[in-house]
Amino acid sequence: MLQGIRSLTTRMRLHADKDVNVMVTMKKIAELCGVSRGTVDRALNGRGRVNAETAAMIRKMAKQLGYEPNPAGKALAARKNNPVIGVLLPSEGNAFFDDVIHGMDLAASSYAIYGLKVRYYLMKGYDVEKQLALMESMRHQVNALIISPIDDPRIAAAIDSLVADGIFVITVVSDIDSSQRRAYVGSDYFNGGETACALLEILLGKKASVGLVMGSRQVLGHRLRLEGFRHRMERLPDFTIAGIVENGDDEICSYERTKELLQEHPDISAMFCMAGGVYGACRAVMQLPEEKQPLVIAFDSVPTTVEMMRCGIVKAILFQHPTRQGRLSVQLAFEYLVNGRLPDKTWYLMKNEIRLLENL
Questions:
Q1: How far is the first Cα of the chain from the last one, in angstroms, to the nearest whole number?
Q2: Long-range contacts of 73-81 (CB under 8 A, 24+ apart)
Q3: How big is the CA angle at 86 (ends 167 and 345), to the nearest 5 degrees?
Q4: pLDDT band at 101 (very low <50, low <70, confident <90, very high)
Q5: Is the Cβ–Cβ distance between 55 and 43 less than 8 Å?
Q6: Whole-angstrom Cα distance, residue 251 to residue 97?
Q7: Could you give the maximum distance between any two Cα atoms of the chain, in Å?
Q8: Mean pLDDT lowest for which of 22-26, 74-78, 215-219, 322-326?
């Protein structure tokens, strides 16, 4: 093998001396390496199995010769495969997803030359039957699925069924237990809960009575955020949770249930809005006399939450990079559909960043 590599290196130098102006192709690399063009394709694009030494030799040859894939040829080949990504999100009535979709649109537009299409399947709230029906409707319509799933065994089974049919699946914004999805792109929810509790300690000191407003326990991320908050609270014996309400990320529901919570627990000194429905919760807070209004922290810089920051109701938010989540999820699906590249990680986690009105 060593002698073969030395011989290859000699051929590479001769080629570089004689043909510096010749366009480097996979066929040329295959000839110089003494392998088939298919082997070169698999080695350079991560498709199928290639002997590790052979793959290293091919990549070295390609690098030294300055090989670059032909974008036009690559785009033509991709168009023949008609790559279609289905996106299933519980985004109706939840402004957070506007930025996620914006990131997806940005990525999709940059890949338009390859014929990539993104089809949106949108729903409101966390109705398992509705999500299952949408998943089934796209079974024969898409090559990949990006989904923000409800954490339910039936959804996990449906994901596995789609994967068995050859559909590439990525979860975004929230993940799901025990499914065969390829990767998750989104926030580190447990850390988000920890960070929120630490932020309240900074703002209020060692003592607080906290009301929690969450979207739904059907969402794994929301439960993890609650677990993270409780975990960090173990260091604060005078921190208590006065009550927890679920709002389904719906503003009206959030207003009504937060109002009830505040009436039942007038000693609440802080509100932590863990998901959507921030505006509704804040409207309930604003109905209290100013001196009795609890401090509010929330997630995400949607326009209505920024409005509540300007009104002095929301003191700080935790930002989870929604545009980046959307863009990266489409990028990973594109890399698989067009280049045959699998994600190199199982989790792509966004950092939770504390933001004030001044640094939004």
A1: 58
A2: 74/114, 74/338, 75/113, 75/114, 75/115, 78/114, 78/115, 78/116, 78/337, 78/338, 79/114, 79/115, 81/115, 81/143, 81/337, 81/338
A3: 60
A4: very high
A5: yes
A6: 15
A7: 85
A8: 74-78
Each residue's pLDDT tens digit, 281-290: 999 999 999 9
Say if residues 192 and 230 touch (Cβ distance below 8 Å): no
Q: How far is CA 317 from the centre of its chain?
A: 19
Inter-residue contact 251 to 279 (CB < 8 Å): yes
CB-based contacts of 21: which residues, under 8 Å, 6+ apart? Answer: none
> What are the tokens at 144?
């990949």
271 token code pair: 């509100």
Tell me the C-alpha distance between 138 and 128, whole Å: 16
Using an 8 Å Cβ cutoff, are 333 and 168 in contact?
Answer: yes
Q: How confident is the model over 103-119, as a mean pLDDT?
A: 93
Amino acid at 282: C
Mean pLDDT confidence for 82-89: 94
Nearest to 226 by CA among 208, 245, 207: 245
Q: Quote the CA–CA distance of 333 and 114 in Å, as a whole number.
A: 13
| Contact partners, residue 352, CB within 8 Å, separation at least 6 | 187, 188, 191, 192, 195, 318, 319, 320
d(CA 280, CA 141): 37
Section 228-239 average pLDDT: 97
SS (H, E, C) the chain: CHHHHHHHHHHHHHHHHHCCCCCCCHHHHHHHHCCCHHHHHHHHHCCCCCCHHHHHHHHHHHHHHCCCCCHHHHHHHHHHHCCEEEEEECCCCCCHHHHHHHHHHHHHHHCHHHCCEEEEEECCCCCHHHHHHHHHHCCCCCCEEEECCCCCHHHHHHHHHHHHCCCEEEEECCCCCCCCCCEEEEECHHHHHHHHHHHHHHHHCCCEEEEEEECCCCCHHHHHHHHHHHHHHCCCCCEEEEEEEECCCCHHHHHHHHHHHHHHCCCCCEEEECCCCHHHHHHHHHCCCHHHCCEEEEECCCHHHHHHHHCCCEEEEEECCHHHHHHHHHHHHHHHHHHCCCCCCCEEEECCEEECHHHC
Q: What is the C-alpha separation between 44 and 155, in angstroms, rounded?
A: 36
